[in-house]
Write a structure and sequence with these properties.
alpha+beta, seven-stranded antiparallel sheet, 7 strands, 146 residues
Length: 146
């Protein structure tokens, strides 16, 4: 992944994120997502094939992802990753998702959730989206009093 070692480490250890896409009108919109990271440093998400975010990124693959600390973190920070998103074909998506890692939110997920996601990926209802980082900003701490 592009960016500093600090940014790479931050993204690898945080799974709370917001995928930023553009609507048909061109207006930006954000989608809360759980992030995973591939061994190559690409960001991975899974979503329903028919979702608005999938339609948005297929239409305009230039997207950004805001990776943040949790809401209860006493030291809030974020990293902004921008690049080109692509929907992986079913087999590649399953393989990428199965071998990717995630931060604390992924670690506490129930095995039932993981099994359900795998089943939805296998039947094609869900897709895996890969974001190849081209620009990375951060980690940034908000100004005091913000």
């Amino acid at each position: 992944m592009a960016g500093s070692e600090e940014a790479r480490s931050f993204v690898a250890s945080h799974s709370r994120s917001f995928l930023l896409t553009r609507r048909d009108s061109g207006a930006p919109t954000g989608h809360p997502m759980t992030l995973r990271v591939s061994s190559a440093g690409d960001l991975l998400f899974n979503t329903y094939r028919a979702s608005a975010k999938a339609r948005n990124l297929i239409r305009r693959p230039q997207v950004s992802c805001l990776v943040t600390t949790g809401t209860d973190d006493p030291d809030p920070r974020w990293v902004l990753v921008s690049g080109t998103a692509e929907v992986l074909d079913r087999d590649e998506g399953i393989r990428a998702w199965s071998t990717s890692t995630g931060g604390p939110a992924v670690a506490v997920r129930s095995p039932v959730v993981g099994d359900t996601v795998q089943a939805r990926l296998a039947d094609g209802k869900r897709i895996v989206v890969r974001l190849r980082p081209e620009r990375v900003i951060g980690p940034i701490r908000p100004a005091r009093g913000s």
